[in-house]
């Protein structure tokens, strides 16, 4: 296990990744190439129904500084500059999008053996300030995540969470949506040799008094092929198969069916990510 409690976004991440990561209903193609000088260029295209979206991302690295520049079909230019370890445990991230003048944001992350802190501020006259902090160890951690709008003087977000981790299981409990929803998640490694894991998530909304229960599993058929499946109490069932066709290149086929409305067409997604 890694040292320290990590960041607030790490609370419940294992279960979220098992249940939702790589499941999609779109068609996506991504190819990455590298220049002799180490510049990485990633081109991607996504078909969402009748809509086709594409972007090109260029990544440049020099020492501990990484710059990502992305241009998409909506004529947006997004730039992210990351400075890794200017001081031990510290990371700085500057991001902005052109022509959106309100998109600029400065973020600082700090990781310690007993704490993880992330704070960000919008680069505007009346910015939104976000702070999240976690205290604990790599076994138990408790944290909070809050956002404050300096223009309205209101808190736009305040969440809290706690997690427990050991060698083969992770359990987490979070209070989200300004205290309106309670989320409990569980992730358990059943058989490490075949990457077999199970996970579950229960979400309760206090305002509607509704519960959403999702369970899922994953299993490696062989060292290059993994299958995942999930189902919730609303009747939505999802499954995928992912194959590493060459080192770092993945082919993923996923599908979704509504078991309570089998007359509706199933949704299928396809993703191909190629790297040299």
Task: Walk me through the topology.
Layout: H1 13-20, E1 27-34, E2 40-48, E3 51-62, E4 65-72, E5 77-84, E6 90-98, E7 105-112, E8 115-122, E9 128-136, E10 140-149, E11 154-165, E12 169-176, E13 181-191, E14 196-205, E15 210-222, E16 225-232, E17 236-246, E18 249-258, E19 267-274
Parallel strand pairs: 1-19
Antiparallel strand pairs: 1-2, 2-3, 3-4, 4-5, 5-6, 6-7, 7-8, 8-9, 9-10, 10-11, 11-12, 12-13, 13-14, 14-15, 15-16, 16-17, 17-18, 18-19
Structural description of this entry:
3% of the residues lie in helices and 65% in strands. Strand 9 and strand 10 form a beta hairpin. The longest helix has 8 residues. It is globular. The two termini are 30 Å apart.
**Helix coverage percent:** under 10%
Structural class: mainly beta
Question: Which percent band covers the strand fraction?
Answer: over 45%
Shape: globular
**N→C terminal distance:** 30 Å
Mean pLDDT: 95
Quick tags:
276 residues, mainly beta, 19-stranded mixed barrel, 19 strands, 3% helix
Q: How would you briefly describe this protein structure?
A:
The protein has 276 residues and is mostly beta strands. It contains 1 helix and 19 strands.
